[in-house]
Amino acid sequence: MSLSRRQVAAAAVSSIPLAFAATQTAHAGGRPHPRTLFIAGDSTAAQKYFDAAPETGWGMALPFFLRNNLRVANHAVNGRSSKSFVDEGRLDVVLGAIRPGDFLLVQFAHNDEKDEDPARYTEPWTTYQDYLRRYVDGARARGARPVLATPVERRRFDAAGNAVPSHGEYPAAMRALARREGVALLDVQALSLALWQRLGVEGTKAYFNWTATEQDNTHFNPPGGIAVARLVARELLRGRVLAHRDVRRLDEEIPESWISWPAPATV
After folding, report:
1. For labelling, which of 198, 232, 235, 254 has a CA lying 20 to 30 Å from the CA of 64?
2. What pTM did the predictor assign?
3. Is 220 helix (H, G, I), strand (E, B) or coil?
């Protein structure tokens, strides 16, 4: 379904966490604009609502690892690829709000891989890189810093119990683009694969959206969303995208009760 630019903008605003919205209000009237980390991505990062609980996007947990001088505006949306996010006008909405000193964190591939769907499919070494470059160039043109994140891995194991990658050439294509364009890279694919390997076949079930009625090996529950957000925050620090003063709780336990699923806003 094609959305109008107004509908996309309204949906994006409704997805911004209340803490961020309150900060915007508090800084009205000429006071300094807080630095903001925008997330453009798919369902693995997206805000979830009460009808999807306990499914949890890692973007929901990322604010727990960032200090109050840095806000998160999570524009990730279920089912989007690097292409469809642009084609629906969602990148335009992000670029319309982003300001100098902000960050644009981009994670796509899960839906770019769907070669049966021309609205979402991209080829790793051509159109995928072309679309990612639009995010990079758009952020830089507005004085913001782009950050590319390889796609978090699915829960997939071989017969010997080894965690196996599921994203084909997409992570390699993103790494190559990041090197060529001089963009900070968070290698979430490699880090999450290593984490699933340590947890094992049974242990990983406690991190994915496995319920009495669903066995979902792509999306996370609260422990999984928190674990992946921790990987992202650590990579932001390791890659010197953020400083020590920007992060917190990297080695602390985050209670699952901190995750909440609000009612979706009416658009």
Report:
1. 198
2. 0.88
3. strand
Q: How far apart are CA 91 and CA 72, in angstroms?
A: 16
pLDDT tens, the chain, 267 aa long: 334 444 444 444 444 443 333 333 334 444 467 899 999 999 999 999 999 999 999 999 999 999 999 999 999 999 999 999 999 999 999 999 999 999 999 999 999 999 999 999 999 999 999 999 999 999 999 999 999 999 999 999 999 999 999 999 999 999 999 999 999 999 999 999 999 999 999 999 999 999 888 899 999 999 999 999 999 999 999 999 999 999 999 999 999 999 999 998 765
Contact at 8 Å (CB) between 76 and 40?
yes
Distance CA 180, CA 222 (A): 35
Distance CA 229, CA 41 (A): 14
Q: What is the DSSP string of 162-215?
A: -B---STTHHHHHHHHHHHHT-EEE-HHHHHHHHHHHHHHHHGGGTEEE-SS-E
Provide the residue type at 112 as one letter.
Answer: D
Distances, alpha carbon 33 to alpha carbons 30, 102, 134, 144, in Å? 8, 10, 25, 13
Phi, psi for 33 (deg, rounded to 5)? -80, 130
Q: Is residue 12 packed enough to be buried (19+ CB in 10 Å), middle (13-18) or exposed (0-12)?
A: buried
Distance in angstroms between the alpha carbons of the first and the last residue of the chain: 15
d(CA 119, CA 122): 9
CA distance 38 to 107: 11
